[in-house]
Design a protein that fits this description.
By secondary structure, this protein is α+β, with helices and mostly antiparallel strands. It is built from four helices and eight strands.
Length: 146
């Protein structure tokens, strides 16, 4: 299990290759890479804040929950904080298991958690406006599946 909360950019392809290379007993690796998108029109940046220590513990717990729930060999979670611009990579999740169904389900579960429950706070900067990003009901609804 590898959990990283960092302010530096990372190469998602390289991280996926490294994660895959260390899987000795897995038959499937599933990954998801999140990118900052300009949903508001005119997004200049997104500021992501977190509480060091608390955030890592929360991500470790949900990764452990996923490993206990599905037959996983490994989990990778990388999430950035700080100032990000549109098209920057914001996060990545990878799961490894013997069979694809567990890897897909666990990755989906982790993404739902990261989207709605992970302790990150986001502000969008557009022109002269700065607004906190509110949680969305569809993200909350997605958690009900689990």
């Amino acid at each position: 299990m590898d959990i990283r909360v960092q302010d530096v950019a990372f190469d998602a392809g390289q991280m996926l290759n490294e994660f895959t290379a260390r899987q000795d007993n897995a038959g499937a690796v599933v990954s998801f890479t999140g990118i900052v998108r300009d949903v508001a029109g005119g997004l200049s940046s997104m500021e992501i804040e977190h509480y060091p220590g608390m955030t890592e513990r929360a991500l470790e717990k949900i990764a452990q929950d996923a490993m206990a729930r599905w037959n996983l060999a490994d989990v990778l979670i990388i999430h950035r904080h700080g100032s990000l611009e549109p098209k920057d990579i914001i996060m990545m999740v990878a799961t490894a298991s013997k069979h694809r169904a567990d890897a897909f389900a666990a990755a989906d579960f982790l993404m739902d958690f990261l989207k709605s429950r992970a302790p990150f706070w986001k502000k969008e900067r557009t022109g002269d406006s700065v607004d906190w990003v509110a949680s969305k009901s569809e993200d909350e609804d997605a958690l009900k599946r689990w």
